[in-house]
Write a structure and sequence with these properties.
By secondary structure, this protein is mostly helical. Helices cover about 65% and strands about 0% of the residues.
C-alpha cells in the first residue's frame, strides 16, 4: 500500500497533489463507512407477510372480476359471432393466470431483492466492484504489474 506521507517526505509528490490525494482518501473512507452502514442496516420485515397476504387475496379475487367484465364484453359480439360471444367468458381463465403469474413474479422478485448485500447470485457484486477499484488505483500509481492481483473470476456464472 502507498503511504501518502512517505511520498511527500521523499518529494515524490508536490503539495497540491499531496492535498488532493489526502482529500480523495478521506472521501474514500467516508464512502466506505456509508457502505458499511447500508450493509449492516436491518430492513424492516413487518410488511413482508402483508405483501404476501395481499398478493394471495388478489389472486383469489381476480378471476371473478375478470369473468364478470369479459361476460359483459361478450354480450356485444353475440349477434355477429354467436360461437365467440357464447364462449368468450372462458378467456378469463388464461387472462387471469397471466395476471396472477405477473403479480406472483413481481412479489417474489421483491422478496429476493430486499437484501442486496447478502452474497446471493442476484445481489450487488460488491467484491467485484471493490477489486475493480483496487486494480484501477494500483495501475494509476504505476505499481509493479506482477504485484497487482487478478480480477475476481465469476463462480457459478455469478459475480461476487
Amino acid at each position: 500500500m502507498i503511504d501518502v506521507r512517505e511520498h511527500r517526505t521523499r518529494s515524490l509528490t508536490e503539495d497540491f497533489r499531496h492535498i488532493e490525494m489526502e482529500n480523495v482518501l478521506i472521501e474514500l473512507f467516508a464512502l466506505q463507512r456509508k457502505s458499511a452502514r447500508i450493509k449492516n442496516f436491518s430492513f424492516p420485515r413487518q410488511c413482508a407477510p402483508l405483501r404476501s397476504a395481499f398478493m394471495w387475496i388478489l389472486v383469489a379475487v381476480l378471476p371473478f372480476g375478470v369473468m364478470c367484465e369479459l361476460d359483459e364484453i361478450s354480450s356485444e359480439p353475440v349477434g355477429q359471432y354467436p360461437l365467440l360471444g357464447k364462449y368468450f367468458v372462458w378467456s378469463s381463465i388464461p387472462f387471469s393466470v397471466l395476471v396472477m403469474w405477473v403479480v406472483n413474479t413481481m412479489e417474489r422478485i421483491g422478496g429476493v431483492s430486499e437484501n442486496p448485500f447478502e452474497g446471493t447470485p442476484n445481489d450487488v457484486p460488491i467484491a467485484d466492484f471493490a477489486r475493480g477499484i483496487e486494480l484501477d488505483l494500483r495501475e494509476m500509481v504505476d505499481q509493479d504489474p506482477s504485484k497487482i492481483p487478478a480480477p475476481i473470476e465469476p463462480q457459478y456464472d455469478t459475480q461476487s
